[in-house]
Amino acid sequence: MKIAVCVKQIPDPATPYGLDPETHLVQRPEDQVLDDTDRYGIEVALQLAEASEGSVVLVSMSPAGTLQGIRQALAMGADEAVVVSDPALRGSDALVTARVLAAAIRRLDADVVIAGTESTDGYSGVVPQQVAELLDLPALTFARRVEATGDGIRIERQTTTGYDVVEAPLPVLISVTAAAVEPRYPTFKGIMQAKSKTVEQPTVGDLGLTPDEVGLKGSGQRVIEVRPAPARSAGTKVVDDGEAHLAIVEALEKAKVI
Amino acid sequence: MKTLVFAEGTPAGPSASSLELLAKAREVGDPSVFFAGEGSDATWAALGAHGATTVHHLEIGDSLPAAGAAASMAALIELEAPDLVLFGLNPTDRDTAGRLSARLGVPLISNAVEIDTSKTPITVTNEILGGTTLVETEFTAGSPHLVVVRPKSFIATEVGGGTPTVTAAPPTGDGPAMSARVVERHEEASTGPKLTEADVIVSGGRGMGAPENFEIIERLARRLGAAVGATRAVVDAGWVPYSMQVGQTGKTVKPNVYIACGISGAMQHLVGMKDSSVIIAINKDEEAPIFGVADLGVVGDVHKVLPKLLEALGE
Ligand SMILES: Cc1cc2nc3c(=O)[nH]c(=O)nc-3n(C[C@H](O)[C@H](O)[C@H](O)COP(=O)(O)OP(=O)(O)OC[C@H]3O[C@@H](n4cnc5c(N)ncnc54)[C@H](O)[C@@H]3O)c2cc1C
Ligand SMILES: Cc1cc2nc3c(=O)[nH]c(=O)nc-3n(C[C@H](O)[C@H](O)[C@H](O)COP(=O)(O)OP(=O)(O)OC[C@H]3O[C@@H](n4cnc5c(N)ncnc54)[C@H](O)[C@@H]3O)c2cc1C
């Protein structure tokens, strides 16, 4: 089974990202980390590949920088990576991102494409579905459990009231939730091997896309204003000395709950 | 302005988000609805009561709806040329919206909390960084404008409209994308009020320590007639089902009172509950971010505070 996993490099969430005051674009440092959300997709991919003597290729679009995030993903055990990194991509929205990812995936002839349900920084949560449509693939989305059947994939799909069991034949796209698997930690050996794995870096042109189709121009949307949300201020704080529950009773009375 | 609202059929009728979206759509013009799933007279009446004048109905059988719905909607959009197409944030809404945008080659703005149709072009505001920052974006491409709206951004209200005209939506065609099938459905039963409708919510996080300690959360909820919520940390750990998750990837709630027990207050949790009228938090770490939004913050151990609270409430 050949598996392509979409993984995103993002600014480290521990140091919250800033927006460029003029362009309103996310400021992307040289050192970006692997989006934690995508570790689940990588783990599902590795398990499917291990069971079928298959291979796992990472697909990413971001300023390459130090490739720190991609190396983290390779260290988990993926075989190689394709990182589309091109200055023309600045300002690309979700659909453009999906076009770029789809173009990169098309060249791989994958049986299974895996993505997270939503990224930590952008969280628009529609890129996997857009990729599926562009590649004319069925999409098994919001998977909380994934298993291979003879000629396809079966998942448990989270719904608002429970879950559905859904299946589709190959080739197929799967979007996974954090409940799907427990991602493995890279081993020392994995970290060493990651350094010598192939990271292909095609440009937009290499993928058959023109600069007009990507970046701000291709995106059909433009940020016009960024402002702080009306802040909710902190109220009173009490340190529990054995009587703090009374403050809660009082608050519940005031809110007419009791 | 012509607006089309996406609605998924649920066992309880049209999705809650579709009724919220109709409230906004009504403001700007004659809304029609694209309805995917099993319909009924009660469903049409509910949509009509919320202001829908036309319903385009697509039967989906056992296929996963999005691929067919997107194909059918694309054909409908060609015929009807709506300016604005609205979706909720439910799984099937997101699947359909993403596919439709790719199919039509038009942009999509996600996580919207406000849509300003008085401006040309239309602008959409969404929240980033856990709701601390608002970003206003304009569409620079032509219509239709596709928007995925966060729950509770608009308030569903009945306006007493009559039964809408119901017509069959354009056929879906077929293709590989439409080959996903639903083979089983499972509802996870819950007792008490529904999380998204509850007036009071008692939520627990990893600070509860162990799954069995959720029992005291349930007892407090019963005493207050409240629903039980949870963080993703405890849902992923398998302590409680996903249907209880509050936050960015869970439910958005807006109760009168939200009681957060052993919850740190991560950005992705806050985004789902920060609009509660009154927030009460119990956390033993006085630096916990949840205190930044709490009207009443109790710095203490949940295992000490909650039993005393229950006792004081005369459970
Ligand atoms: C105003 C604006 C400016 C932007 N500027 C830039 C820029 O300068 N440079 C740039 O590279 N991007 C840029 N982007 C793109 C952005 O960072 C996202 O990649 C894109 O919008 C996808 O949205 P998301 O992260 O919300 O995806 P979601 O749909 O939330 O992601 C779901 C899953 O899709 C996959 N996925 C999503 N994005 C990628 C990706 N980029 N690579 C691999 N897998 C992915 C992952 O598996 C992820 O878990 C910009 C976007 C906007 C709206
Ligand atoms: C893309 C993405 C989406 C996400 N979506 C969601 C979402 O929808 N909902 C969500 O909740 N999270 C979501 N998260 C996860 C989120 O980032 C946090 O990891 C999660 O909310 C933390 O849950 P918690 O507060 O239960 O646990 P922790 O962060 O571990 O906090 C536990 C808290 O309990 C306190 N505590 C410990 N013991 C006690 C005690 N005895 N008494 C009192 N207090 C105690 C601690 O001081 C601590 O503050 C998402 C993350 C990502 C990356």
Key features of this structure:
heterodimer, A: 258 residues, 7 helices, 13 strands, B: 315 residues, alpha/beta, 10-stranded mixed beta sheet, 5-stranded parallel beta sheet, 8 helices
The CA-CA distance between the termini of chain A, in Å, is 59 Å
Mean pLDDT of chain A: 94
**Major pleated sheet of chain B:** 10 strands, mixed
- Sheet with the most strands: spatial strand order of chain A: 9-8-7-10-6-1-4-5-11
Global shape of chain A: globular
Figure out the total of helices of chain B. Answer: 8
Instruction: Work out the helicity level of chain A.
Output: 25-40%
Number of helices of chain A: 7
Measured between the Cα atoms of the first and last residue of chain B, the distance is 54 Å
Radius of gyration computed on alpha carbons of chain A: 21 Å
What order do the SSEs of chain B take from the amino end to the carboxyl end, as H and E? EEHEHEHEHEEEEEEEHEHEHEEH
Mass-distribution shape of chain B: elongated
> Which spans of chain A of ≥5 residues are poorly predicted at pLDDT below 50?
none
The assembly state of the depicted protein chains is: heterodimer
What structural category arises from helix and sheet content of chain B?
Answer: alpha/beta
Question: How can the largest sheet of chain A be summarized?
Answer: 9 strands, mixed
- List the ligand species: flavin-adenine dinucleotide
